[in-house]
Structure formats: structure tokens, C-alpha cells
Amino acid sequence: MVLALGAAAPAGAALDVGQPAPAFSAPAALDGKPFTYSLSAALARGPVVVYFFPAAFTAGCSMEAHAFAEAIDQFAALGATVIGVSTDDMDTLAKFSSQHCQGRFPVASDADRTISKSYDALMQTRPDYATRVSYVVAPDGTVAAQYQSLNPDRHVEKMLDAVRQLRAGGSK
Q1: Distance between CA atoms of 104 and 112, rounded to whole angstroms?
Q2: Would residue 42 count as lying in a domain?
Q3: If we measure between CA atoms, which residue out of 122, 119, 167 comes closest to residue 143?
Q4: Rounded-to-integer distance, Cα 96 and Cα 86, Å
Q5: Is residue 135 part of a domain?
Q6: Per-residue model confidence as pLDDT tens digits over 69-91
Q7: Read out DSSP for 80-115?
Q8: How many CA atoms lie within 13 A of 144 on its CB side?
Q9: pTM
Q10: Is 3 within a domain?
């Protein structure tokens, strides 16, 4: 099943639906505890929402993390997991994972920006920061949906809808 979420992103500003999602492992934190996150291990359990955000502890990113935390049971009910990714360092993200993510989902550090580059998720005007873009990666490792907007308000809703549609159409 392929799902495009409208013209939320300018052409070429994000990975296209149907493209392979780049596999990655990264240092991450869940409720302040560090570990190594593996996208391929997460995909073995079901779809994964990979969402990129500019900077922990900023108003929009804190609001978005809180919204994902509040919706985590809905994602879990659909068999999906969530990982947030930013270019922040691990110390910052460990605190952020406990406070704004409420210990409900992990956040990964992409301090060298390798993951953000591979997902075409760096801000064009401030390339040291990830832009706000969210992906649903299907269990087969392809991009099932993407949504890009610097406004954090609709990312959770868009990703829940995309996971629902992916599940309704059957897993890839």
C-alpha cells in the first residue's frame, strides 16, 4: 500500500513514498536510559514512525514530543512504534526523553547528521538542525507515508492516519 499525504512537502524535500527507508542504528534514550536503537530491529515488530525534530526543549519540539507521548498507546494498538530523531547530543536527549517524551518512546541522537542527511531531513537554511518531517516506514523497509511541516500540530494525527491506512491495506 502506498500513501501520500498531500502536498505538505515541497518536491524533493523528503523521501518519496515507496522508496527504501535508510536503515540506521543510533545512540538513543528511553526515559533517560541510553541504549542503541536499531530501525531494522524495530521493523521486525511492525511499522515504525520515524520523526525528525529540530531541537529538544524548544517550544514546538516539546509540544510535538508531548503529543506523540500522549498518542503512543494508539500507535501501539496498531502495532507501530515511534522514534524521534534530532541532531541534539545524548545528554540533552536523555533528559528530553524523560521529560517531554514522558518515557513513552525513545529519541535518537544524530549528532553527525548522517541519518538526517539520508532521510533528506536537514533544514535547508540551518543545516546543523533536522527539519520537522515524519515518516511511516512499513515493515518491508519502504516509506509508506511522509509529512513535512515546521508546524508541529498535525504530525501525530497524520502519522496515526497513515499507520491506520497501512494496516487497512495489509502489511507490505
Answers
A1: 25
A2: yes
A3: 119
A4: 11
A5: yes
A6: 999 999 999 999 999 999 999 99
A7: -EEEEEES--HHHHHHHHHHTSTTSS-EEE-TT-HH
A8: 29
A9: 0.89
A10: no
